[in-house]
């Protein structure tokens, strides 16, 4: 009888110990699952993938930037910039070509004449220089794991080098450098390797399928086999499938689901750049182009969310100098859709420069978050702006709240906020947004406050007022082909649009280039009503 309380005490201690150990377990050690359109952890809570691409598929066979900074510093910086994950690329020859895989980092760089980079690696990452390139790859995975950064292993290409073109022999199953059997052996090796890395949560089977050989039947045949290969070697990773035509087309999935033996792990990926549509953004009216391109992206890929699959937008990005008009206009449209659909993503890209790209030593990357020296951030306003996408607006877990809207301004990455009843409305961080509702009468209602957004006078701030049924200045329609101009009537009856002035005040101005005109950019007047269900 006496021993029972002691036993109970011991059990209690063990229980507490167990739960505190469970708490200590790093978040990244968890397997993730696909639960309808959400990627979730084992407890069913959404784990939004906010990734950045980190290439390791070019000729030197080493993740970029290690001549500039220690791997650990880069991994820490990735977290500091708000990302929780890296899409780490690899060329198929890394696991499959013994001649290459047995090279040490020193040999690989010497063979390419990259002596300056090699000296940089020697000083920033001395432990890597005598490792075989595969061991160096694993060492980068370890640095990411130590810093709680999740990893998606992406088979980017077969032959190490810059990717991609239609006739590079790497585009589709059966191309000169793309033997499906070798590819599956490579997937098997990398998936097996990943069993030793708890932070590897997904495998992207093949980047940007493309070229004259591409066809839907072979896509199913080999992607299904590849998916089964990965699953057999490593049941813990999400299996991520890329579409056709440089990963812009998954429309064929609509009427023909993928047939695989496992559940809760299938994810699709999509790429979307400004240049995906050539020069259309610059040569057309941004409303017209955004409307048309969004519809296209919807029917080719984004419909998958509605069909109950997660969609990982694994490449997107813009020239951060801000001088590329095509990119700027695309990015405004992209930001709106990315917030609206709250998809998982990987930004292109991390690297500020390359050891060697397309024959150019030390090429700069103007889409990269890091500056040329990887010593700082290339454009902090770009990072701030896109960082709104890093936190989930919706999905299971977190602190849930009643479904409502936030009024998102894609040009700034900010949302309309009421700082205080006496100050004008501004745009600020979306996490501080009050809940809004868009009523059947087209009014924008500040939930709970009985106040409505109202246009008063051209050139003046928008205000919050009470609504009378006859007052047209509280009615806001979403006009133009982009449906992103919020248009209302001023007190004098003139048509006006909501806008944001350079001081971030929400103002009412004349509607800008609603259609046709291509020389003007209306993006300061673009707003998107974004659903939010969590704080
Ligand atoms: C392996 O790599 C070497 C060195 O780049 C190359 O010459 C060879 O063709 C590759 N072998 C295969 C099977 O790809
Ligand atoms: C799915 O694959 C299994 C196993 O290969 C096969 O038996 C089944 O017929 C396939 N189903 C469809 C609808 O193709
Ligand atoms: C950063 O991006 C903004 C917006 O595109 C641009 O105006 C600015 O010049 C850029 N800054 C740098 C340092 O490139």
Task: Give a quick set of tags describing it.
535 residues, alpha/beta, TIM Barrel, Trefoil (Acidic Fibroblast Growth Factor, subunit A), 2 domains, four-stranded antiparallel beta sheet, 14 helices, 21% strand, disordered N terminus, binds 2-acetamido-2-deoxy-beta-D-glucopyranose
Detailed description of the structure:
The chain has 14 helices and 24 strands. With 535 residues, it is an alpha/beta fold. It has two domains: 23-390, Alpha-Beta Barrel (TIM Barrel); 400-534, Trefoil (Trefoil (Acidic Fibroblast Growth Factor, subunit A)), CATH 2.80.10.50. The strands form six sheets. It has an eight-stranded parallel β-barrel with strand order 3-4-5-6-7-8-9-10, surrounded by four helices. A hairpin with a 2-residue loop joins β1 and β2. Mean pLDDT is 94; it is low at 1-28. Residues 93, 97, 99-100 line the site of one 2-acetamido-2-deoxy-beta-D-glucopyranose (NAG). The site of one 2-acetamido-2-deoxy-beta-D-glucopyranose (NAG) has 4 residues, from α4.
Describe the SSE topology.
Elements: H1 3-24, E1 33-35, E2 38-40, E3 50-54, H2 71-80, E4 85-91, H3 93-96, H4 98-101, H5 105-111, H6 115-124, H7 133-146, E5 150-157, H8 180-194, E6 200-204, H9 216-233, E7 238-242, H10 244-247, E8 266-271, H11 280-283, H12 286-306, E9 311-315, H13 325-341, E10 344-347, E11 356-357, E12 360-361, H14 380-386, E13 400-409, E14 414-417, E15 426-428, E16 436-438, E17 444-446, E18 451-454, E19 463-465, E20 477-479, E21 485-489, E22 495-500, E23 506-509, E24 528-534
Parallel strand pairs: 3-4, 3-10, 4-5, 5-6, 6-7, 7-8, 8-9, 9-10
Antiparallel strand pairs: 1-2, 11-12, 13-14, 13-24, 14-15, 16-17, 17-18, 18-19, 20-21, 21-22, 22-23
């Amino acid at each position: 009888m006496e021993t029972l309380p002691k036993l109970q005490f011991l059990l209690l201690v063990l229980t507490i110990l167990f739960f505190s150990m469970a708490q200590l377990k790093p978040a990244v050690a968890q397997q993730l699952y696909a639960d309808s359109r959400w990627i979730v952890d084992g407890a069913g809570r959404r784990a939004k993938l906010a990734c950045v691409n980190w290439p390791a598929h070019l000729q030197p066979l080493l993740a970029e930037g290690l001549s500039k900074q220690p791997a650990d510093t880069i991994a820490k910086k990735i977290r500091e910039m708000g990302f929780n994950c890296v899409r780490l690329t690899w060329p198929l020859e890394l696991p499959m070509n013994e001649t290459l895989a047995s090279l040490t980092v020193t040999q690989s760089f010497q063979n390419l004449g990259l002596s300056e980079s090699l000296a940089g690696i020697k000083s920033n990452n001395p432990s890597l220089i005598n490792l075989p390139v595969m061991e160096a790859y694993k060492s980068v995975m370890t640095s990411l794991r130590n810093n709680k950064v999740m990893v998606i292993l992406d088979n980017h290409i077969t032959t190490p080098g810059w990717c991609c073109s239609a006739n590079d022999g790497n585009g589709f199953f059966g191309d000169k450098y793309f033997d499906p059997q070798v590819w599956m052996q490579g997937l098997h090796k990398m998936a097996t390797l990943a069993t030793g890395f708890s932070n590897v949560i997904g495998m992207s089977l093949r980047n940007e399928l493309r070229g004259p050989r591409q066809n839907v039947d072979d896509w199913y045949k080999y992607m299904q086999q590849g998916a089964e290969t990965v699953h057999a070697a490593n049941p813990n990773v999400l299996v991520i499938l890329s579409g056709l035509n440089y990963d812009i087309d998954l429309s064929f999935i609509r009427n023909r689901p993928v047939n695989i033996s496992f559940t809760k792990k299938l994810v699709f990926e999509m790429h979307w750049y400004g240049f995906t549509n050539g020069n259309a953004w610059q040569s057309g009216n941004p409303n017209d182009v955004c409307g048309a391109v969004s519809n296209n992206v919807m029917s080719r890929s984004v419909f998958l969310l509605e069909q109950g699959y997660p969609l990982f937008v694994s490449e997107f990005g813009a020239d951060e100098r801000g001088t590329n008009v095509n990119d700027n206009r695309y990015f405004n449209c992209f930001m709106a859709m990315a917030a609206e659909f709250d998809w998982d993503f990987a930004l292109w890209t991390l690297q500020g420069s390359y050891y060697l790209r397309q024959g150019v030593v030390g090429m700069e990357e103007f889409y990269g978050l890091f500056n040329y020296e990887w010593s700082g951030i290339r454009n902090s306003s770009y990072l701030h702006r896109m960082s709104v996408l890093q936190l989930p607006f919706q999905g299971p877990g977190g602190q849930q709240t009643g479904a409502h809207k936030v009024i998102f301004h894609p040009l700034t990455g900010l949302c309309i906020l009421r700082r205080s009843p006496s100050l004008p409305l501004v745009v600020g961080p979306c996490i501080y947004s009050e809940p809004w509702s868009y009523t059947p009468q087209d009014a924008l209602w500040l939930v709970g406050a009985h106040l409505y957004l109202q246009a008063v006078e051209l050139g003046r701030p928008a205000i919050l007022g009470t609504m009378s049924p006859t007052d047209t200045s509280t009615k806001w329609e979403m006009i133009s082909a982009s449906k992103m101009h919020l248009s209302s009537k001023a007190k004098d009856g003139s048509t006006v649009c909501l806008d944001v002035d350079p001081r971030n005040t929400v103002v009412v101005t004349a509607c800008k280039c609603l259609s046709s005109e291509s020389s003007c950019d209306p993006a300061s007047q673009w707003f998107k009503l974004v659903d939010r269900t969590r704080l």
